[in-house]
UniProtKB/TrEMBL annotation:
Signal peptide: none annotated. This is Methyltransferase domain-containing protein. Residues 67-164 form the Methyltransferase domain. CDD domains: AdoMet_MTases. SUPFAM superfamilies: S-adenosyl-L-methionine-dependent methyltransferases (SSF53335). It comes from the Bacteria.
Length: 290
């Protein structure tokens, strides 16, 4: 389950359908935008997120083993890990996303161990210490309550093997503030919004964001992850020094493709540098089970 920072006002009907829980709202959003999710990471700007994420996986994950992709979406990362020879299962709240993942994996001549259509809050069926690595990239974007985020984190810790590695993602309000200059400047007509983004711990309804969502800041995200028992190995800002430069990157891709590639390669290598990682839209925390 991966998202680009897209802000728009969705209809009240979409937000207040027959089911009103956050899970149903988020599930409806991803079911309705399943194909968009597959295509999203392929554009010139968001591709830096994909490349940086793969760089971190290749750098920190074990070379072999059983991986659980929690919030797998249409399987962009799952497919790449299967190509590398990992044993892997996918879990996502959206059945439409999983259908795309199943088709893409089959087209590649590969197979997964399982497709689980459920919320990240429903990890109870997985046995303790079942996985060598876990991707948790997306579910925490949508949980307003700390108790819910902690349940997901503690279950992730429980089902990860000792010394297993996880990649845990949050959306960062500091980076979103930069993106807001070009993507959603109208909300800052109210100057109080600036402080809200600086403070983090931001709970957005589906009328305020792309769907019901939770944005925070690096220090709060790191504290939650530590509270769940994980050892933090590293963390990265996956947009690196290109964060907030969507229009410029798109132009560079179109007019100077070789220079674009040089910027992308350099940004990936710099994604863990302290001067960049705290001010990007997405932060990835690399953890290990003690």
């Amino acid at each position: 389950m991966v998202v680009e920072l897209i802000y728009f006002n969705m209809s009240v009907e979409y937000c207040n359908g027959e089911e009103s829980s956050m899970n149903s709202i988020v599930k409806n959003y991803y079911n309705d935008n399943a194909e968009l999710e597959w295509n999203r990471l392929g554009n010139p700007y968001t591709n830096i997120e994909f490349r940086s994420s793969m760089y971190l996986i290749e750098k920190y994950f074990p070379e072999t083993g059983y991986i659980l992709d929690i919030g797998s979406g249409p399987g962009r990362y799952s497919l790449e890990l299967l190509k590398k020879g990992y044993k892997l299962s996918l879990l996502d709240i959206s059945n439409n996303e999983l259908d795309i993942a199943r088709d893409k994996i089959k087209e590649a001549g590969l197979s997964s161990e399982g497709y689980h259509c459920k919320s990240a809050l429903e990890l109870d069926s997985f046995e303790d210490e079942s996985f060598d690595g876990i991707l948790l990239m997306g579910p925490l974007y949508h949980l307003h309550e700390e108790k819910d985020r902690m349940k997901v984190l503690k279950d992730t810790y429980r089902i990860l093997k000792k010394d297993g590695v996880g990649l845990i993602s949050y959306i960062n309000t500091w980076g979103a503030l930069k993106a807001g200059v070009s993507e959603f400047p109208e909300i800052f007509e109210n100057i109080e919004y600036f402080q809200k983004y600086v403070n983090g711990d931001l709970k957005l309804s589906c009328l305020e964001g792309f769907t019901e969502s939770y944005f925070t800041i690096p220090s709060l995200a790191l504290a939650e992850v530590k509270k769940a028992g994980f050892k933090i190995v590293s963390y990265a800002g996956v947009e690196s020094f290109l964060s907030g430069l969507k229009a410029q990157i798109n132009e560079l891709y179109k007019n100077m493709p070789e220079v674009y590639e040089n910027f992308m390669a350099s940004a990936v290598k710099c994604c863990e540098m302290p001067q960049y990682r705290d001010a990007t839209e997405h932060i990835h925390i690399i953890v290990k089970k003690r």
